[in-house]
Write a structure and sequence with these properties.
about 45% helix; disordered C terminus
Length: about 775
Amino acid sequence: MLSPQQQLAFLAFAALSLASAAYTWRGLYRRISAGRADTDARFDRTVQRLWYALVTTLTQSRTFRKRPWVSFFHAFIFYGFTFYLLVNLVDAAEGFLPFIISSTNPAGLAYNLLADLLSAAVLIGVIALVLRRFLLPSRRDFTFNPRTLLHPAIKRQSIRLDSLIVSAFILFHVGSRAIGAGAKLAAEGPDPFQPFATLIAHAISPENAHDWRVFAYWGALGSVLAFLAYFPFSKHIHIFMAPLKYAVARGVPSGVLPALDLNLESESPQLGAAKLEDLAWPRLLDAYACIQCNRCQDVCPATATGKALSPSALEINKRMELNDLARGPNGFGSGAPSPNPLLQFALSAEAAWACTTCGACIEVCPVQDEPMLDIIDIRRQQVMVEGAFPSQLQSAFRGMERSNNPWGINHDKRLDWAEGLAIKTTDQNPNPDVLFWVGCAASYDPQSQKTARAVVQLLDHAGVDFAVLGKRECCTGDTARRSGNEYLYRQLADRNVATLNEVNPKLIVATCPHCMNALGKEYSQIGGDYKVMHHTEYLAALVAQGRLAPDAGTATVAFHDPCYLGRHNGVYDAPRNLLNVISNSVVELDRNRENSFCCGAGGAQFWKEEEPGDQRISDNRYNEAARKLAGASQPVLAVGCPFCKSMLESTPGKGETPIAVRDIAELLLEGVRRRTGITTAVPALEITQAVAPTPAAATPISPAPVPVAVPPAAVAEIETAAPPPPAERKKWSPKAASPAATAASGPSASIQAESKAEAPEPPPEPPTPQDEAPKRKTWTPKRPSS
């Protein structure tokens, strides 16, 4: 088709374009590889990883999770460009070799039909998405909160400019190819299997067909060659980076944070991230895989309530900085460090401390970016290196250091919640079927104690052989880890792992999803291999076996999915199975299961004031529940997390629409009482920590248990990790000191088993000055100054 002169010109242009592209693509590789080595396995199970990447890419399954119509048009472009990898090679060969692909044979027919239909589909998809981004009301999806830190390049409208360049390229590239196909049919005759090209052929005369074919050849293939050098700077690079991101995806749940080497004796310990090169290389790959769709921003509780954090802006800011550095004199990735701190261009300190670590951004991302992990690394650096963190966290840190709990309450009070209940510790019952992990909240918070007491009575009623660690139990360190204090987390976690390895529990049941996540998932990084279940999973198994038989009540119940139970650990059905036997009227909140909205407590937010915004996160969630339960005579919001319960029960947004916030265990206990009643009071038992239990303490307090057949899928299997050798560690000392505060709570009243409702608790004893609990400050929304 091309003349010899045109062929030479095209080859010369192709050589120059490919050389330029090689230079920019090499720079892209060097920028990504400039990140530090990752602590997560990224190249194991090669076959499974490649298969997952192929299937996820070709099915577009993650893209179709949200915005179905937008995803539909995006699929037009994706499948068109995927097939165009073949089309461009065939078209390039046609310029040099005389051959014809005819629709008279099956292979030629399939090729011509797909090329024709996908050309039309790509053009339709691009036009639809351009209208959405620039003209339709949905263009608001691409805006940011006024408080959000934006890279100077974004303020220069670089996102808009890049979108225009990419859209123009696709339209010109595919449009030129369609014109070339139409010109070919104008000279050779129509083809019923190329309807789009045949339509174009009607506008081209046979005399001018060859000239149009030459123009289309240069337009279609020349535009691709010219665009190759720009690819690494464009958002269109995600067409290659997204499959790569799938191939090297983390092999652990989102609730497991990357391990951190705490060797403080090394010359330059890597404690978190201050600059781009401090982030692991997959975090830099995230920036180039990002589609800039802002779906993560749509589901972020901080963004939804007007705060400074935008996970989308974080990833886009990283890319803009990387691109700016690539154009600099030294070039980031060639050994030159990045000049600017992350908190100067990627996100503000205010935004870093607004994250609740709910994982919604990771769950919704079409390309599996993980902005939450960037924030954790930034917090680690701020806490352990700079000593810069919200002052309210000082009390929680000191409480965990001194009293083994963030409340700062005397550790000797850890079993006060169980007063009046017949509970044995592992010292008294060293080989129980179930180890009940109580957690700090249920040990010290009066509202959470109701949940623990309900669980104990249900286990006792079902005849389960269980025990607690008692005073050997200490905080799992979740709050310390999520706030960036990895060293304090390891102090607590190592202590718990040593205790649990000694006890060697068959099964651990926890009422707190944060404890469940740490024990069952994160402790495997430091030698803790345990089977851990949430109490709703275990109670659901007991109900399924008939060992607990509740009567359904008349209350209308909606369930709030805790982030660390649902999104981070995939437990959705067990709580709902229980509610369906507890109540005759169960409704779903609009945002449920993996799309659930955070209560606002995670990421150590429970221990500090919320960052400035337009609304409290818990208010946002509570208002959703109030709308769904409006009109119900007995509205109940069921929860499965002590922090969710506290946040939603105490949120200022309750106002005139009070809704009972209850843990599922409390509701189940009421249902069991409705069905059978409990005719004798639960006997009180003095809790001791004796090494050798006395005969009285060894007396069974419940009938011989029937083994619980727990479904294998309900128990998290943790990969065994060899415990690291003990090492002497330096004591963590924060730079920003504030007065210490410790807390105490009075013993809760014993729950009378014969009653159908929980007896009111007597007023707690007045706390002594050294045991007074710290009070959380009232949050007031702040608006940006004009």
